[in-house]
Task: structure prediction
Amino acid sequence: MKGLLLLILLTIATSGFGINASDSSGVPKFVESQLKLRPQLFVPIQFAGNIGWFSTGIGYSAKRDLYQLSFVYGYVPEQVAGIDIHTVTARNIFHLYRLPLNEQSVLIPYAAAGVSLEVGGRSFFTLPDNMSPGYYGFPKSLHLIPAIGCKLRRATPRRSNLKGVELFAEVTTVDVYIWYKTISREVRMPDILSASAGIHFFPGR
Result:
C-alpha cells in the first residue's frame, strides 16, 4: 500500500498534465505567489491516516510557505470499523525542503503532527468510574498523530478557479502505538504504521 502511494505520487510528478500556468519568466503562478509571501487558504481532503476513513476541512498556509495548519473532520463508517467514528483534528504541517520539478510543479517533503479528538461518544477522555485506576495509561479519545510524507504542488491553468493543488502521500502512526512499541518486542514497526493520501485545493485567483 505504501509503495503504491509512492509510485502514484512519482508518476504524477513526472507527468505533464497538459497544464501551462507559468508566466514569461517560467515561474509557476501558484509557486510564485508563495515566494511573494502571500498566505493561502486551502481545502484538504484526505483518505485514511488515523484521523478518519475520510476527512476534510479548511487549512491555512503561512506566509513563508514553511508551515500549514488545517482543521478537519474525520469519519469512519460502521462498515469499516464496526461502529461509526467521528473525529476532529488539528494538523500542523512543516515543509522541510522544496524541489522544483518543472515549470508547473514542485516537490515538498514534510513532517506533520496532529492532535485528534474523537467526538462521537465512542471513547473517553477521563477514565470511567467502572474501570480500575491505571487500566488505561492514555485517554482513549485524544491522541497525537505524527506523520512524514511528500507532496506534489501543481499550478493550475489561468481559466481555472483554483490557484493550485497539492497531492500528498504520507505514513502516519498514533502516540499510543509508539508507546506499545517501546514496551513490547512483539509489536513490529509495520504494525504501528499506516499509509494515507489526499489533496489540498487552493481556491481563488
In short: Helices lie at 2-14, 29-35, 78-81, 175-183, 189-192. The chain has one domain: 2-203. The domain at 2-203 is CATH 2.40.160.20 (Porin).
